Amino acid sequence: xxxxxxxxxxxxxxxxxxxxxxxxxxxxxxxxxxxxxxxxxxxxxxxxxxxxxxxxxxxxxxxxxxxxxxxxxxxxxxxxxxxxxxxxxxxxxxxxxxxxxxxxxxxxxxxxxxxxxxxxxxxxxxxxxxxxxxxxxxxxxxxxxxxxxxxxxxxxxxxxxxxxxxxxxxxxxxxxxxxxxxxxxxxxxxxxxxxxxxxxxxxxxxxxxxxxxxxxxxxxxxxxxxxxxxxxxxxxxxxxxxxxxxxxxxxxxxxxxxxxxxxxxxxxxxxxxxxxxxxxxxxxxxxxxxxxxxxxxxxxxxxxxxxxxxxxxxxxxxxxxxxxxxxxxxxxxxxxxxxxxxxxxxxxxxxxxxxxxxxxxxxxxxxxxxxxxxxxxxxxxxxxxxxxxxxxxxxxxxxxxxxxxx
Length: 406
Hints:
Structural class: alpha/beta
CATH architecture of the largest domain: 2-Layer Sandwich
Distance between the termini: 69 Å
Largest sheet: 5 strands, parallel
Mean pLDDT: 80
CATH class of the largest domain: Alpha Beta
CATH superfamily of the largest domain: Histidine kinase-like ATPase, C-terminal domain
């Protein structure tokens, strides 16, 4: 079924412009019988006067009139912005091509030659009225859409303004949080520094075993508190600020040696051996040496903590696809079920493979690697124990040739 353009005649008004009273009478009768509202003018000036005082839906315009002809009237109609969309149908006994083309050039919508067929004229009138009303509805729709777009744009602007204000508040809160954490960490470290020195003196001068044990407990607690303060400062740097690490040249093999040397006492207390496989003795990485050292130390300390007595820890360093990898494997219980997914969450505790420093060691190591463009892979070994890989994706250089391989 095809759709048709339908316009109610009762809503449409038509202006007939013709100097021949008989033509006006015939046209008027035909249109009134079709329920159109009509007015008429017998010359061009009268037609323009009508158009000043009233808006019509369509104009039937005779071409040949004395004084001002139809072409001139059409030109003046089209020069008025308020009448630009009113359909104009020329009526004329002339049917030459030039007259028809000129009428279209002046803005007429159609051209009917006299004598005309009433059914054809009515069909064309209905068509042009339907097109006019469709155009008006489209313009109304466009205007409504423009208003909605403006309204939505205004709402978006208001929402964006609120979001910006909220972001500013969040930045202020973040700054306040950073300052607070710095303050707390410094306030903890200040009295700690006043305790650590005298403790060292007490350890050297106290001989009674009971007092010595108490001093040892106090020493462990103070060192743990100091470690927490240092870690809190480090978390503040890495998490609450856009931290950019320095670009030191780090000989990764030498750095690992430093870490294992500093852990020697703890290794000896558990009779734990270090097995090294170093396939990158001549390479260095770029980054902040102290942070990278801290990261490796955290992983090694965890491995020592969870390694049984009389076992070994493997430290393997190698290059895979232009990535420096440092792998530390132990023979401990490994990661508990579900612990791997939560290993990098701050302050996670429980039966998972987590460091003893309130669950912040692995998250700190992960943040350090992230700040250097690297990442950590953790897993359980098939033969038992945990495996942690530090992947350094940044530029690496061979010391021996100084050739970049990245």
